[in-house]
Fold this sequence. Notes:
Distance between the termini: 40 Å
Amino acid sequence: MRYFFHSGYLGTNYSGWQKHPDGLSVQQVLEEALSQIFKTPMYITGCGRTDAQVHASQFFFHMDAEQEWDYDLLFRLNKLLPDDIAVFDIIPMEGLPHARFDAVERSYDYFIHTYKDPFLGGFSAFYPVKNWYIDQMQRAANLLLQYNDYHAFCKMPDRNEHTICNITSARVYMNAKGDRLRFSISANRFLGRMVRIITGKLIDIGTGTLSVDEFEHYLIHPQETQLIKPAYPQGLYLSRIRYPYLDIPSKSEFVPMLAEGLG
């Protein structure tokens, strides 16, 4: 039977979600914990990938099990997992739904603080900028809904079957003091480092080093090469995954707390 696991993690200590030989991944930690509990190798499939040091306040993965267990798996799993990874729910599913391919919308939030703060350092990106052109940033964000080829906003576009993404919302928020920002974006899919690359461009627009017209040029001409400068990873959160058959809020209240006063 197939099970969906509703989870979340702080990505600071990991080389991303997906297993690879260059560092510890969230997937590896989860598979090792599940294999220890079931006393046989267990393999999981995630709803997507996140870069090194990127967080997920909501993340789904699926796992197949031949027989139903007769103990509290949620308790045992969370007891084995480190403090920066949590499983909130284990959901039995009918048929063989896919955690990655069935997702119809993914949402990310990116947080920026403009003053040095030891309590925000690992959870928000520090950009010491006093004055932001927030209206220009939102103008650029609005353009994202008018185009769908993001070849120019992907680190390695040739690794993808195609670079078409349908963005459904993109908003830039600033708090009343003007010292914290949030960028929220939702789409059916995202390419490698796409959100961080777009955020980097919005930061350039917000600081006056890139115009909205220049930004739109690469949306109109996605095959043209450009300087790729992703925003820092620690400000980024995968914050919502929606399926046709499953749409539940994140159990973690941390991102809403970060977003307080930011839309």
